[in-house]
Amino acid sequence: MGFGGFGSGLVLMPLLTLIYSPTHAVAIQMVLVTITGFALMPNAIRHTRWREAGPMLIIACLVMPFGSYLLQTTDPGILRPVIGVVVLVLAALQFRGAAYAGPRNALTATAAGAVSGMANGMVGLGGLIVGLYMVSSRDPAAMQRANIIVVGTGVAAINLVILALSGVYVAELAARIAILMVPYGITAWCGARFFHVTPGELYRKIVLTLVMALGVATLVS
After folding, report:
1. Per the domain annotation, does 134 fall within a domain?
2. How many domains does the chain have?
3. pLDDT-derived band of residue 16, with 50, 70 and 90 as boundaries?
């Protein structure tokens, strides 16, 4: 999260769904991403291309309640393997360097935002859709990362509010989040520092290999 502005869900969601229900796993992920994203936001806003990030953020927030409804009403036994499949596919795409090569305009940004909003509401992985779309542009890395942080954080914050209004955040879950926030926050800070000095290509491939293994573990658990 700190290095690229997205990707923590690839690691967190398979692990969390091995321990908690999919609803609680997404709820935990949304808090961690929102808090960390707000910490990264001041620097990101200066580099954001709003004519691209704006439509994505707006449509993602409008679509997301539908995904959140499916998250809270679908049988966890069905949703858990769905998360595993989504993780595997997105990890494989990232590992192969997949990127969107079509036209880039308000319409494509809106379409990417719609897919991201649904994915974020249902399986907590909408930030990866944003990442795949943004990193395929020819913008400088700082602008790509800034767009991802702004859209991903905004969507996560709205999803957090939706889940909170649905009564998901009970005291026990809040305590677990507080514990997880310590290592997550520290390593996100380290990732942000490394962004400016590390190319990270080998690191990314190693992490994605681990992520695909976690996706398999989610499917067979």
Report:
1. yes
2. 1
3. confident
